[in-house]
Design brief:
alpha+beta; single chain; 4 strands; 100 residues; Glutaredoxin
């Protein structure tokens, strides 16, 4: 499956956020970058998606990975691109499903 919409929620002083953006850029993966320190609606959306306020958070076609390093991003991306259907987020829940 080729992802269609990628959003990366970042904090500009976050080293992991910079690494995640570089990882995506190095692979030519287009993404929207949302700075949660200056955009309060992006911050609220990040918290809604991930259940926490740590960055980075990436959302790919409704699948979420939160507070990660690039090795975890690489594994997440491999699962996404190999999967024929949504696989859930790091907590096993799609972004459009309510968590319990």
């Amino acid at each position: 499956m080729k992802p269609k919409h990628v959003r990366l929620f970042i904090k500009p002083y976050c080293g992991w956020c910079h690494q995640a953006a570089h990882w995506l850029d190095d692979r030519g993966i287009q993404h929207d970058t949302l700075d949660v320190t200056t955009n309060s609606s992006a911050r609220q959306e990040m918290i809604r998606l991930s259940g926490q306020s740590l960055a980075p958070v990436i959302e790919v076609d409704g699948q979420v990975l939160a507070d990660f390093a690039t090795d975890e991003l690489e594994e997440f991306w491999a699962r996404l691109t190999a999967a024929p259907a949504p696989i859930g987020n790091a907590h096993g829940v799609s972004a459009d499903q309510p968590s319990s």
